[in-house]
Amino acid sequence: MNQFEQEALAYHAAAPAGKVALQITKDVNTAADLALAYSPGVAVPCLAIRDNPEAALKYTAKGNLVAVITNGTAVLGLGDIGALAAKPVMEGKAVLFKKFANIDAVDLEIDERDPDKLVEIIAALHPSFGGINLEDIKAPECFEIERRLNERLPIPVFHDDQHGTAIVVGAGLLNALALTGRQASDIRVVCSGAGAAAMACLEMLVQLGVRREQIYVCDSKGLLTTRRSLSAEKEVWAQDTELHTLAQAIVGADVFLGLSGPGVLTQTDVMQMADEPIIFTLANPEPELRPELVREVAPRAIIATGRSDYPNQINNALCFPYLFRAALDCGARTINQAMKLACVRAIAELARNSPEFGPGAIVPELLDPRLLATVCPAVVAAARASGVAHR
Ligand SMILES: NC(=O)C1=CN([C@@H]2O[C@H](COP(=O)(O)OP(=O)(O)OC[C@H]3O[C@@H](n4cnc5c(N)ncnc54)[C@H](OP(=O)(O)O)[C@@H]3O)[C@@H](O)[C@H]2O)C=CC1
Ligand SMILES: CC(=O)C(=O)O
Ligand SMILES: [Mg+2]
Question: Is 93 a catalytic residue?
Fold first, then answer.
């Protein structure tokens, strides 16, 4: 184990173990306090909520409480490591909710792979929460799970790996295009990965003006082509081509989007790309190709990863705390496309308004304190304009 790995274990093991703890928000020092907090006083808000469910927002923590829910089937790029092993990631998401947007988040690792049962479990849990952040649930099950929960529940349900990633990729790409003098409608994109994150990112790229026919997608078996038998989600991206591999498709490409796993991109692939390529190697924790290896063969490339130890961190953490803050504050029952696009533009603009803006700073840093004050109002405004804000 190297020194960094030892540090990571020591960080998590330092007492108290893990990264999150609950906090009491009212005085509970005297018998009189107890009489208010518990019996008999607690019965009064219970009955108020029975008579008017909206009162839960006034008398409980629900309105500022988000569930971070996984079944551990696609944890980062580590794959299907199971619910329990996913807990450090989910605690990490809870930390980011609190740190960046003062949202209390509870991580729930549910040992259930069956999509029907998972939907039932999450639906049954929903009264406790103001929102649900689905995390690291693998494709294709994640698409159906999110859709059914959104149809059924009166609170926002958001699959972070799909939409959070798509928002930040969209923002990063807009700025990378501007910096390299490209138009979205002119570029050719090669994507490695055809799972939750990739599918949503590609739809976002199309929304931003990239032409569908200019997007080539690879899964673990190679290029998605009309000659292959594919799932409905993948079929949308199939190209009618004789090409089969990433190495073939990447010749002349302007953009590489990596949402797959480590080692998928080679230096030879990078050398085949257009001048000043845009290379987003976003697999976590180990990218498709390390930035220093990309740089060796493409010195003018704009490079992003999902990690905090390289510049240009394209990670859904740049948006999910603020999207949920906005949704909770304005009582949005869903996080719709208008809110997502407002988030893309706000993040992109924030980076452009920074003195550091350039190839090494195409998105704001995760710790940028301006994110809360700029992204949230933009998303709230979009929620109001699109009629989903209820407060
Ligand atoms: N930076 C960020 O913010 C984020 C990064 N990610 C990263 O994206 C990756 C995928 O996550 P997610 O979409 O949630 O997971 P999924 O399990 O839903 O999808 C994984 C996809 O990667 C494909 N894949 C696996 N190995 C290869 C390979 N060797 N070559 C090409 N494709 C391959 C799979 O192919 P097949 O369909 O054939 O199984 C599948 O399409 C992870 O590494 C994750 O860390 C995800 C979300 C956010
Ligand atoms: C960042 C993230 O959500 C992932 O890699 O899965
Ligand atoms: Mg994730």
Answer: yes
